[in-house]
Design a protein that fits this description.
alpha+beta; 7-stranded antiparallel sheet; 4-stranded mixed sheet; globular; binds zinc ion
């Protein structure tokens, strides 16, 4: 019998495929909680320990560094939910596709699973609406072509611990009748921390990438567990010395010619980190380019700052038209 050597990826269009990357520095505008574990009434945030190279005068004799962390797996979960809960008409996108978490539909035609991947470990029956014959789904593995990385904060600023209490909504109560608020402690990532993050997309059509763009931008307001939530893309001079721009780079390419604007987790000085990001952002095919919003070299295209947001916005609209395709006119 002949052997199948193909990837198995079903094609629904003849659009060309590219690799895409998003590099960004995110800023927490308030404290954030990304849970790690609970220790005797304390909710701990996730941190990472970074070993430092020896004999570096900057390390002050320390051989490791503890930093707050916006872990890529958590960011991925928030992004996936941004798609599952996207509005389409009177419904949510995931409901129209019968695709959720943990039960992904794992169908190649699903715009979410197609890029994030899906897994059905054994055959299952899915309820259908209105109640009818259950939909049978076989054991399926669909490998995602979107990967997440980064997330280690730049500044070495440990979590802060705060006292919290759950206050009942009663306005009056008899003394001693109801329990007093239960205090607990929760750690938070401090405001102003900067998190360099990266998304990579393998061999995607522009339509497929539109879901990634929508998820990335949609997740910004919702990152964090519990409340408060939300980050923004860090704004500061990037191309021109006196104009603030969002620190974001979007690449579309066949061959990876651009130097990746990835900040080393061992750097704790913000200016040093920005210098490293910026130097890489303007470096293509091993050559330093003049600072500009768009850089190109053959099939390699890089969009920086405001131009990256403009490019992503094109994909956001593409996603809205292609997948949320509803006349969402708001009545007076
Ligand atoms: Zn799906």
């Amino acid at each position: 019998m002949a052997i199948n050597v193909k990837s198995g990826l079903e094609n629904y269009s003849d659009e060309p495929r590219f690799h895409f990357d998003i590099y960004a520095i995110l800023e927490g505008s308030q404290e954030l909680f990304f849970g790690h574990e609970t220790q005797v009434n304390v909710n701990i945030v996730e941190t990472v320990i970074i070993p430092l190279p020896g004999n570096d005068e900057e390390t002050n004799g320390d051989d490791e560094l503890e930093k707050c962390y916006l872990s890529p797996t958590k960011r991925r979960g928030v992004e996936r939910r941004a798609l599952i809960w996207a509005p389409t008409g009177n419904e949510l996108l995931g409901d129209t596709l019968n695709c959720g978490i943990p039960h992904t539909c794992s169908q190649a035609k699903c715009p979410i699973c197609r890029v994030f991947g899906g897994l059905i470990t054994s055959p299952i029956d899915i309820e259908t609406e209105p109640k009818g014959k259950p939909e049978k789904r076989p054991e399926t593995t669909l490998i995602g072509r979107l990967t997440h990385s980064g997330g280690v904060a730049i500044q070495e600023l440990g979590p802060e611990e705060k006292q919290r209490a759950m206050h009942p909504s009663m306005l009056t109560k008899d003394p001693g009748k109801e329990p007093t608020p239960t205090p607990f402690k929760r750690e938070y990532n401090q405001p102003g921390l900067l998190y360099p993050v990266y998304n990579h997309c393998l061999s995607m059509t522009e339509r497929e990438f539109s879901a990634v763009a929508y998820a990335f931008m949609g997740a910004l307001a919702r990152l964090g567990a519990g409340n408060p939530k939300g980050v923004k893309i860090y704004d500061a001079p990037l191309i021109k010395e006196d104009v603030d721009e969002p620190w974001i780079v979007v690449d579309r390419y066949l061959a990876p010619l651009g130097k990746r604007p990835v900040v080393s987790p061992t750097i704790k000085d913000v200016e040093k980190a920005k210098k490293q990001f910026k130097a890489a952002a303007f470096s293509v095919a091993g050559r330093k380019k003049e600072a500009a919003n768009e850089l190109a070299d053959g099939n390699f295209h890089r969009y920086i700052g405001d131009a990256a947001i403009a490019k992503l916005s094109e994909y956001l609209i593409k996603f809205e038209k292609g997948e949320l395709n509803v006349d969402a006119e708001i009545g007076d």
